[in-house]
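Backbone description:
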Amino acid sequence: QVQLIESGGGLVPAGGSLRLSCAASGRTYAMGWFRQAPGKEREFVARIIIGDITNYADSVKGRFTISRDNAKTTAYLQMNSLKPEDTAVYYCYADDFAVPGRVYWGQGTQVTVSS
């Protein structure tokens, strides 16, 4: 069982930046974020997998950067040039390293971008 602890959300004006962190209690194959805005479905934002291969949603490419620390247990999402439409609850997730298909979720952190 892997636990994920998120931090770093908050309120920022449009054009500003925030960095989210997600600390895992164990080894993971991939880590990333989804987000959910009010009245909308949860959507993929970004992920980083073994080998530091990264994937991004088209809506955040060029603005968001995902990375991991050397121990591969903490992921970071650097969010620049934030827009009001980025406002959502951001959920960190992780794929279990040993059990394919087992996914863990963080508690979620609110990101609010004011116009």
Summary: The two ends are 40 Å apart (CA to CA). The mean pLDDT is 95.
